């Protein structure tokens, strides 16, 4: 269990939150200034007004031609038509900045150096095809479209509670001999990270290479320069993803939501939980916090290693050297453990890998689809896939929180209930509190567990990761976890939402319309 350590200084916490508020204020001020200048120019110079109208039309055509979801396109088009100047300004800031293009080039360079090291064994795909063509097609999409191989001989362990995963991580970290890579959306310098920090510092002192990578927004209010200095003084390399700065840069909207730990290239961890107190119920602002995790041992850890190095090197445009030092020549082998494929998703490569995995799983279901997600803000394609599955007789169940962490997002999530219930989808709310796990189980044979929520931010705006698993013994543990969650959750009545007022339906409709931009 995480043990108590020193509590972060309140003044440092206030300073980090204050930094975020200052950045938000500065960015909004710059947008407002840019907007007012454009309004003045358009109102007073006819040629600028005509030119701006032409730019707005061209922007709309550009949006329509983009390789992205239709709901996102529609929101931007309507926004630009309803508020041409403001809509155009925001669109250019999000999609037209040099910084975004620079980041795309950095990731392309890193991927070009790293991912050729991921080699797919054709014997594995052929063996999988003989067992199940449907499963083979699921994994082939990841390998052929996104470059993520499918592996055998990898042990997959499922943890039904974040605390169990955390304890296993501590034990594995103590055994590290060569290197430790850790990448998390949020790290909090309190009880949850205290014991782990001691182990990391001890390992760095022993000569183990330790790298820690975290998202600046996700960890704001949790860590501070004093914390980072302590780790770096102890020999731990720290790097921040996409630091927030008081300059207009809408790449700041893209956050690192991945959760990855790699130890010596042989053991890897991922799942839904960050390294902060609330994930382990050390404090419980939203009732009981329910989360899950995965441990990998064997060949598949190589993908997690390269996903970490991709983010690490893309952030400072550094050359990737000595990759073989982090990919063992010989992995531990675990025959008979089924198949698995770790995968990543990026908001800047025009590939919605996470959503495609979910859609393919839903489309292939014959018996059941079980889903847990903290948020349900879905595209028309996802809604149609779920309702079509229910209409063809598949047992579709979705579990959401009983106690929300974000009331606005909760209200939008619940606005989808009525249409899903009408089609026969069963919806549950987790009575004990907040369910944060992101997992899908189909036909008790194939599952995915990871960081990807059923919402626009995860599917289109964040860097994410997950593991696709087929016929592994851990599938039984995942199924047992679902049935335990169903047992303690409240099923939403099919009559839910039938008596919503016109005002409530209108407000929910507006929020859903704006959801792609949230």
UniProtKB/TrEMBL annotation:
PROSITE patterns in the record: PLD
Any Gene Ontology biological process: cardiolipin biosynthetic process
Membrane-crossing residue ranges in chain numbering: 20-39, 45-64, 76-96
Transcription recorded as keyword: no
Enzyme Commission number(s) from the entry: 2.7.8.-
GO MF annotation list: cardiolipin synthase activity
InterPro entries linked: Cardiolipin_synthase, CLS_N, PLD-like_dom, PLipase_D/transphosphatidylase
Gene3D superfamilies noted in UniProt: Endonuclease Chain A
Top-level EC class as recorded in UniProt: transferase
GO CC annotation terms, alphabetical: plasma membrane
Keywords in alphabetical order: Cell membrane, Lipid biosynthesis, Lipid metabolism, Membrane, Phospholipid biosynthesis, Phospholipid metabolism, Repeat, Transferase, Transmembrane, Transmembrane helix
SUPFAM superfamilies named among the record's database cross-references: Phospholipase D/nuclease (SSF56024)
Pfam family of the protein (one): PLDc_N
Residue intervals of the PLD phosphodiesterase domain: 252-279, 431-458
Membrane topology reported for the UniProt record: Multi-pass membrane protein
Subcellular location(s) per record: Cell membrane
PANTHER family the UniProt entry points to: CARDIOLIPIN SYNTHASE (PTHR21248), PHOSPHOLIPASE D (PTHR21248:SF22)
NCBIfam families named in the record: bac_cardiolipin
Protein name, per record: Cardiolipin synthase
């Amino acid at each position: 269990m995480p043990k108590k350590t020193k509590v972060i200084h309140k003044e440092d916490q206030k300073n980090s939150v204050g930094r975020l508020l200052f950045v938000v204020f500065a960015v909004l001020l710059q947008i407002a200034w840019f907007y007012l200048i454009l309004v003045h120019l358009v109102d007073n110079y006819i040629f600028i007004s005509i030119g701006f109208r032409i730019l707005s039309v061209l922007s709309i055509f550009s949006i329509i031609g983009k390789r992205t979801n239709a709901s996102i396109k529609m929101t931007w088009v309507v926004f630009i038509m309803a508020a041409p100047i403001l809509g155009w300004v925001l669109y250019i800031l999000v999609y037209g900045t040099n910084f975004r293009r620079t980041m795309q080039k950095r990731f392309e360079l890193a991927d070009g150096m790293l991912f050729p090291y991921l080699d797919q064994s054709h014997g594995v795909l052929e063996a999988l095809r003989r067992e199940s063509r449907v499963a083979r097609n699921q994994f082939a999409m990841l390998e052929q479209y996104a470059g993520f191989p499918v592996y055998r001989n990898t042990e997959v362990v499922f943890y039904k509670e974040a605390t169990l995963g955390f304890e296993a991580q501590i034990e594995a970290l103590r055994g590290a001999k060569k290197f430790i890579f850790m990448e998390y959306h949020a790290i909090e310098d309190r009880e949850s990270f205290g014991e782990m920090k001691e182990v990391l510092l001890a390992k760095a002192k022993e000569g183990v290479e330790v790298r820690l990578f975290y998202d600046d927004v996700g960890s704001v209010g949790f860590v501070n320069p004093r914390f980072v200095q302590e780790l770096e003084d102890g020999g731990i390399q720290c790097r921040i993803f996409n630091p927030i700065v008081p300059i207009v840069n809408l790449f700041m909207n893209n956050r690192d939501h991945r959760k990855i730990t790699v130890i010596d290239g042989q053991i890897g961890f991922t799942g839904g939980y960050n390294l902060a107190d609330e994930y382990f119920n050390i404090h419980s602002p939203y009732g009981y916090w329910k989360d899950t995790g995965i441990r990998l041992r064997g060949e598949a850890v190589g993908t997690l290693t390269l996903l970490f190095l991709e983010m690490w090197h893309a952030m400072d445009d550094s050359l990737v050297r000595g990759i073989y030092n982090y990919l063992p020549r010989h992995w531990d082998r675990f025959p008979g453990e089924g198949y698995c494929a770790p995968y990543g998703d990026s908001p800047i490569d025009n590939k919605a890998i996470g959503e495609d995995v979910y859609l393919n799983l839903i489309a292939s279901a014959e018996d059941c689809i079980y889903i847990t997600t903290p948020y349900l803000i879905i595209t028309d394609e996802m809604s149609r896939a779920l309702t079509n599955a229910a209409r063809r007789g598949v047992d579709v169940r979705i579990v959401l929180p009983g106690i929300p962490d974000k009331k606005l997002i909760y209200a939008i999530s619940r606005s989808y209930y009525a249409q899903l219930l009408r089609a026969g989808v069963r919806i549950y709310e987790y009575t004990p509190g907040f369910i944060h796990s992101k997992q899908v189980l189909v036909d008790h044979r194939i599952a995915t567990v990871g960081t990807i929520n059923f919402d626009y931010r995860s599917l289109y705006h964040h860097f994410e990761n997950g593991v696709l698993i087929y016929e592994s013994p851990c599938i039984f543990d995942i199924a047992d976890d679902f049935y335990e969650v169903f047992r303690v959750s409240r099923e939403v009545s099919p009559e839910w939402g039938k008596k919503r007022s016109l005002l409530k339906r209108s407000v929910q409709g507006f929020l859903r319309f704006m959801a792609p931009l949230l």
